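[Q] Does anyone have a clean structure-token version of this?
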Amino acid sequence: MRRYALTAAILLPACVLAASSPANARIVCRNDYQLVSGNLISTPYCADNYVAAVARQYGMRVSDAAIRNNPNKKREVCRFIGHDIRVAEHCNNEVPRGRRGF
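[A] Here you go.
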């Protein structure tokens, strides 16, 4: 009987710690695609993060949150790096195109 009490005394705190730890629920992005259940899908969240990452490669000091939360900042970044083929799809509405610029 004493052996079971000792085992319970050791296992009970371990079970409580395991149950109380937060789940690892975070968004995983691979370039401009989000990993969902093993599949890559295009989401605006990951696309904006990718635009920010490419802008940082060009030397701009911009955060992912700034691109996601401030449309004017995204427009400014896209005008600077919108010619890059990696972000051209995500900067479609921000960069003027055509002969007359609109």
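[Q] Thanks! Anything notable?
[A] Strands lie at 29-30, 33-36, 39-42.
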